[in-house]
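Can't attach files on this board, so I'm pasting raw text. These are the components:
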Amino acid sequence: MLSEKNQRKVEELRKRYPTSQALVLPVLWMVQEQEGYISEDSMKYVAALLHIPFGHILGVVSFYTMLQKDRIGKHHIEVCTNVSCMLRGSGKILEHIEQRLGITVGETSPDKKWTLSETECMGSCGTAPMLAIGDEYYENLTLEKIDKLIDNLK
Amino acid sequence: MNFQSADTERLNAWKRVIIPDDRDLYKIDHYLAHGGYKALKKALEMKPEEIIDEVKRSNLRGRGGACFPTGLKWSFMPKNSDKPKYLCINGDESEPGTFKDRQIFEFNPHLLIEGTLIACYAMGITVAYIYIRGEYGKWIKMLQKAIDDAYANGLVGEKILGTEFSTQVYIHRGAGAYICGEESSLMNSIEGERGYPRVKPPFPAQVGLWGCPTTINNVETISNIPVIINYGWEWYSKIGAAKHPGPILVGVSGHVNNPGVFEMPTGEPLLEIIYKWAGGVPGDKGIKAVIPGGSSTMILRGDQLEGIRMDADSLKTAGSSVGTAGIIVMDEDTDLIQVITRIAQFYYRESCGQCTPCREGTDWMFKILKRFQRYEAKNDDIDLLLDVANNIEGNTICALGDAAAWPVQSMIRNFRDEFEQRVQASRLQEIAL
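---
Top answer:
C-alpha cells for the assembled complex are below.
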C-alpha cells in the first residue's frame, strides 16, 4: 500500500526508535499524505507492517484530530475560532466562507472539492484571524482575502 | 490612555538574544559566521556537571508554563544509568494565545539545536526528540532543514566537533491534540500511544520514554541554554526579575493595535507591554479583561492591572500565573460570556477522556455556559458552574483539569456581575416570550 519510496522511509525511521510502535504516528502521517485519508484497510496494513493490533491503530487514529478516517474534500479549510481569533472577527470569516462555499462547518461539498472545519488555536494569535489549508497558513484575514483565496483555488 | 515608559532608555538598550533582528540566522553559514555553535564548543570543553551548575545558578525557569527551575530538573537525571537516557523538547505549543516557539523554528532554529546538543552533553543523552504539533507542518520543514544542515556540518550525529560526544536529534510530529503538550502525554505520543497523561510519580527523570530516564524541556527554555553558556550565569541572572530572570518571549493578541511576539526581560509591567510594546487598544477603548499567560491562566480585571509585572512571582501575587506568556487583551465592549464559553468549549474538546471529573466536568461546564450564551441561564446556574469547576480542580491525573477549571472560576470571581446580568436578562426574555 505504501509507495516504495515511503517503504524505504519506514526502514530509515526504524533506526530512530527502539520500538516499532513508535512508528505509528510517522507511518500514519505517511499514509494520509499519500492517500488523503486513512481507510480501514490502510489501518490494517499499518498494523501488519508494524506488528501491532489493528485495535491499537484505530485507537490512535480516532484520538488525534488531524488524522482523517474518511475521505475529505480536496481543500480542507480549517478556521480557528479560539479566543484570539474570535476577538478579531473569526465568526464573520467563518460565516463568509460558509456562504461562499454553500456548506456549513463539518461538511464536505458534494463535488468533494471543499471540507470546512472549525479548529482550536493553531498558534497564529498575533496574526488573527487565520485559517489553514493543509500545511499553509493564511493570516490577518479579511473578507476580500478570502474571496481571492477561494477564487484562486476554484 | 497615554502610556509613558519610565525607563525607555533601558529598554532601547535591550538587545534581543533569542530572536535577534538578524533575519538570516536560519542559514547555517550565517549562524556560524555570527558566533553560532560557539556555546557548543565552549560547553564541550566543560565538565557536564559544570554545565548543570551554570544553568542552576542562572536561575533559568522553564518557559512552558510551570516555571520549574531548569538546572534543578536536569540534576534529577541519574548520572549513571544502565538504560539509555532521552531528551524531549516540547514544541507542541497549543495553549490558546501562545505563538512563540514558532518564531524560534522560523527565525533562529540553530539556537534551539545548539541548546539541545548542550543539554544532551550535560545530561549524558544520546538521542533527543523534538516534538512539534502537527499543524506546524511548514515550521517542521524549516527546522528539519536546519537539523540536516547541522548534520552535514558535523555538529549533530557521531563524534560532534571531533570529540567523543555523539547525539542524534529527531523531529516527531504530533497530529492534533492539545493534551500532548503535557509532558507524560507527550512521551506516550512518541511511543505511538494515544496521548494519555501518566500518573506521577514516578517522574520522567526516573521512568520516562520507554521506561528510561528522560528530561522534557520547552523549546524556548532550551533556546536559552546557549545564551547562558556564552554570557555566563552571572550576566543572565541579572536580566529582569531576580527570581525569574532572563529574556522571555511574550505574545500579545486580541484587542491591541500591534499584536505579535516580543522578546523582553522578564518582569516588565503588564500595562507597559500592552500600551508600549503592543501599541495599545484600537479606538483607545478601555480594557475590560486580560488573560496574562495563555487561556489556562486566571483572567484579570482591566482595572486591576496597575503594578502587575510579567514574571512568575508578580502574577502569582496578582492571583494568576505567567503560564506561556501569551497575553490576550479584551476591550471594554467584549462579551465575556462568549469568551468563557469558547474557552470552555476548548477544554471540553481537548480533554483526553481519561479522568471522569475532567471528561464529564468540561462537558457540563460547556453546556451550562451555552445556556448563558443563549439567554437561558437560571438563578442557580452560577453556583452550579462553580461547583462543577471546583470538583474538577485537583481531581485529575494531569493539569488539564485545573486548566479547565481556573478560567471559569476566575471569570466568575472577577466578573460575577456579568453572569448575574445574564441570568436577569434570561428571565426577562422568558417573560417576554
